[in-house]
Fold this sequence. Notes:
Elements: H1 6-37, E1 44-51, E2 54-59, E3 63-66, E4 71-79, E5 87-90, E6 104-105, H2 106-109, E7 119-127, E8 130-139, H3 143-152, H4 156-169, H5 174-186, H6 190-203, H7 207-220, H8 223-236, H9 241-253, H10 257-270, H11 276-289, H12 293-306, H13 311-324, H14 327-340, H15 345-357, H16 361-374, H17 379-391, H18 395-408, H19 413-425, H20 429-442, H21 447-459, H22 463-476, H23 481-493, H24 497-510, H25 515-527, H26 531-544, H27 549-561, H28 565-578, H29 583-593
Parallel strand pairs: 3-8
Antiparallel strand pairs: 1-2, 1-4, 4-6, 5-7, 7-8
Helix pairs in contact: 3-4, 4-5, 5-6, 6-7, 7-8, 8-9, 9-10, 10-11, 11-12, 12-13, 13-14, 14-15, 15-16, 15-17, 16-17, 17-18, 18-19, 19-20, 20-21, 21-22, 22-23, 23-24, 24-25, 25-26, 26-27, 27-28, 28-29
Amino acid sequence: MRKVRRKPRRKTRKGYWFVLVVVVAVFLVAWWIWPGYYSASPRFHSMLLQKNDEVLLAPNGDTLELHPQDSLKILKVSTTITFNVGVRLYAEGLDVPALSYEKLSMASLLPKEPSEGERRFRVYVKHFNREIGSVDFLVRPFVEDWLEKAERVIEPSRRVEVLEEAMKVAPGERRIRKRLLEEYKTQKKWQEAAAMLEAMAREKEDPQVVHELVEAYEALNQPAGILNSLKRLVQMQPENSRIRLRYASALENSKKTREAIAEYEEVLKKADKGDQPSLLKTIGYLYSMIEDTPKAIQSYAKAFELDRGDANLCYNLSSLYEKAGDQERSDYYLGVAISLKPEDKDGQMRLSERLLKRGRLEEAEKQLIDLLRKSPDSMNGLLLMSQVAEKRKDSRKLREIYSRILSLEPENLTVMYNLGVLAYEAGDLQAASPHLEKYAGAHPREADVRTILFDIYRKQKKDDLAFKTAQSLVTINPKDLRSHSFMLEYLHSRGEYGRIIETAEAALRSLPDDVDIRNYLVLGYLKAGKEDLALSQMHQILKLTPKDLDLLLQIARLQERKGQNKEAVETYGKILNLAPQHEEAGEAYLRLRMGGLPLEKQ
């Protein structure tokens, strides 16, 4: 049989495939195409773009950073809508649909209004008029653009403004921040620099940033900021002695002495031997500032062991030991200081004075001899040397020193007096008198110097000068018996009885009980013919010396001569009571009693 039955079988296969295709198409329309066209909640997934030569995928809600010179093309928009039917792009101020057709530079799409900062465009993906997602285009210059623009600006203030705007655009950009910081420093805008550095330091613990922060606070002269920054550095780098030393110095300058000491001592623990002396000196100084004398001495003493050539160390130790009451060690270190610094005349003077006070005359003299060798005209040195000579009772040396002082200060009256007294004590009256006379002329009420001059004049037989000096002495001291006596003796030798009366009467006002003065007054009265006054004075003397036979005899004679026989008999009787064998009194007494002849004038 020939193939009669095959034809119906072919028709059956074609029908089968047709039916199958129709069924699949209906399924696809029902499952994919229809929901895609008429979805109740369409969604935007992502946008595929070509930026220059780079293909990027921007998910829904993402931000794409672009430069104005970038070329961009939208390759594909991925949504839940079949074939993106009814899907469109929209951005205010930016022709986004054009990017779906060709690759364009962003500069050609941007608005013509000038802008120096960033621009943000939100590209909306819409299904018909319904927004189903978005992607942000952030268009801003590159860092290099900002930096280049800043370099082109001539005006410094404007340059800062450009860089500050760049920082707002790219706050995390290290190069812009670094350039702005440099500009702040160049323009001395330290407050702004400090604020920026503080922000950087908070973001990251960077020692270099904190170092720059210290520099900024130093320029601002803000001790609190300096201390805080250095403290942070010490905490970051505790093993860095250089930073700790700087921190200690800042504490010292801020008068935080105890904290500074602690930091210096920490540095000292790790310091090289060559650095230890300076640290110990600083620590010693700070201990002395807080009046911790024992620790100050300890630190300075350790420093001196390492550096025996530092005279200042010795001065400090001397001062501290003196404060501690150890005068011997104080003098020792002062002596060492002077040996290291021989030109220090003040220190040598101070040491000499201390040695002198302690009675170490030989050492003091040695220092003073050396001092006067270097400075022969040192007045203080000569005065101290005079004290040495005085304590040694070396009058010859003392006169020599006073002569040197007087040659330097011819009007120094104190030295003049001392020199005059020394010459007087040495018996050199000729040398003594000029100095004492000049001193007395400047001190008219000083009795001591006139007393010495009075003695000198008497020894030199210069009675006229002695008399004038005695007059001055009794003016100063009316009870100066010696001067009164000399004056009366001087006037008696010259026969000036009138002045004797005057002088004696004045003297008796201060010395009423002095018999010698009254005797001179009696003499004056008698020589002046004033017998009644003389007799009155004799009776005053008799009250003082009632058993004076000579005075009684003189009174009796004067009474008899004046015809006062009754009074004369009484006086002769007193004589006989005291001396019964007195011949003249006995004869006169009998004569007067018997009415005999009157007594002849004697």
